[in-house]
Amino acid sequence: MKRIVLIALLLTFAIPSWSAARSVTVDQLHQMLADMQRANKTDQEVATELHQVLLTQELTGAALQSITPLLPGPLATEQIYVLQTRSSMLPPPDSSIPADPAPDAAAQQALLAKAQDYVTKTFSQLPHLAASRLTARFQDGVAAVHTYSGMNHGSAQDSDPLWQETVAKVRLVNTASAPFESIGGIEKPSPVKDKNNWGANNIITPTAPPLALPTILKEAIAAGSPHFVRWQLIGKRKVAVFEFALDKEKTSYSVTYCCFPKSDTSGMLSNTIGISAGASQGGSGTLQTISEWLPFHSEPGFHGQLFIDSELGVVFRTITTGDFKNTDFVHAESFRTDYAAQKIDGKVLVVPARTFLVADIVPNGDSYVAYYAVRHMMITQTWSDYKLAQ
Questions:
Q1: Sheet holding 289-298, edge to edge
Q2: Cα–Cα distance between 130 and 19 in angstroms, integer?
Q3: Which of 52-56, 180-184, 291-295 bottoms out in mean pLDDT, i.e. has the lowest?
């Protein structure tokens, strides 16, 4: 109850989410970049303009390739990848949506049956595979609280990192490459212990694997909810897009993020709010706090989409979106997995190729030594060099 009250009271300090962005289509984005190239805009100027853009359609791989020659430098390129990731859950441009009539009910059930057959007899029978996985993390500059303890800590907005936003744009934080193994299409846990000090290092990350394809399909069909919404082209393949929704009682979907600060404060809430007000005027306040970093775990319901090949029943993409409460430290999470055909040991296998994670989190947790703020976080992962594991 304390956390709910605190978050409700501190909502007045919330930073608007993408409030200044203007909505554009992929074609309008292309035209905008072409106009800026003709005007000889600098890399910084183009990046600043792109930060104000909110796409209304998915920036597909093909569209990205056509846009790349219009980018003047690394800052603009970085923002294009931010746009691609942020738009990854949206429908594509109209050119990638065939105008074919929707399949009737019997044909829809036949497609879902093909997908079940493929996942059971092919995907789940994939051999023990090894690959390299490149992870890229993006986030804006909303700072998490630091671990303070003791009496009479003075906070001033212009001097303490607690009150500062280091950068307003979503930027690339880091990249990391690591080995990856899977058996039957499901990731094998790594024997190497994760030594990252998540949260305290100003990066909060999911630490539980996403729901596996066989589980997503099984639970969606068991709930009887998949329904056809459109045709779509992924590369040259025509896929049927099905939507579904599951209550938390009917799914094993769960998320765990590490880590959020938990503060123990001896002062009253009114005194803490007074500190915030004093700090906003360049003053200081007195508080006693001890912070530790704890994971957040939730088992909400979720909704999503299945992208099923119209001929073979191969699932080439899944999207899942959690249904979180407003008071959760994770406000929103959408996860997309793309599968692609790879030649491995002389055989063509459909394996994970890329993932997109888009999340809104509250980096300060239930700590009220800092104003309430939402961080926009994105993670992409790309697989390469698949081979049979030794």
A1: 205-206, 255-265, 289-298
A2: 43
A3: 291-295
Which carries the bigger pLDDT value, residue 153 or residue 45?
45
Q: Which of 95, 122, 155 is the last residue of a domain?
A: 95
61 close to 21: Cβ distance less than 8 angstroms: no
Sign of CA dihedral 364, 365, 366, 371: positive
CA gap 201, 373 in Å, rounded? 17
Q: Is the pLDDT of residue 66 over 90?
A: yes
Two structure tokens written together for 136:
């890229």
Whether residue 321 sits in one domain with residue 284: yes
CA-based nearest residue to 21, from 320, 376, 324: 376
**258 cis-preceded (ω within 30 degrees of 0):** no
Residues facing 306 on adjacent strands: 242, 318
Mean pLDDT value across the chain: 84
| Joined tokens for residue 263 | 């503060």
Query: Are residues 128 and 45 located together in one domain of the fold?
Result: no
pLDDT for 327-368, tens place per residue?
Answer: 899 999 999 999 999 999 999 999 999 999 999 999 888 775
Q: What's this model's pTM, rounded to 2 decimal places? A: 0.84
**Phi, then psi, of 277 in degrees rounded to 5:** -65, -40
Shared domain check, 72 and 18: yes
For the chain, percent helix, then strand, then coil, each to nearest 5? Answer: 30, 35, 40
Angle between helices 269-280 and 2-10 (to 10 degrees): 30
Supply the pLDDT for residue 217: 96
Q: 199: left (phi > 0), else alpha (psi -120 to 50), else beta?
A: left
**Angle at CA of residue 176, ends 175 and 178, nearest 5°:** 155
95, 121, 138: which is the final residue of a domain?
95
Q: Which domain holds residue 49?
A: 2-95
What is the DSSP pairing of strand 53-55 with strand 22-24?
Answer: parallel
For residue 379, the SS3 value is: strand
Q: Write out the two tokens for 228.
A: 């056809």
> What does the alpha-carbon distance between residue 15 and residue 262 come to, in Å, rounded to a whole number?
21
Q: Residue 336: its pLDDT value, please? A: 98
Task: Look at 158-167, 195-204, 235-244 and tell me which has the smallest mean pLDDT.
Answer: 158-167
Q: Rounded distance, CA 320 to CA 336, Å?
A: 7
Residue 15: which pLDDT band, with cuts at 50, 70 and 90? very low
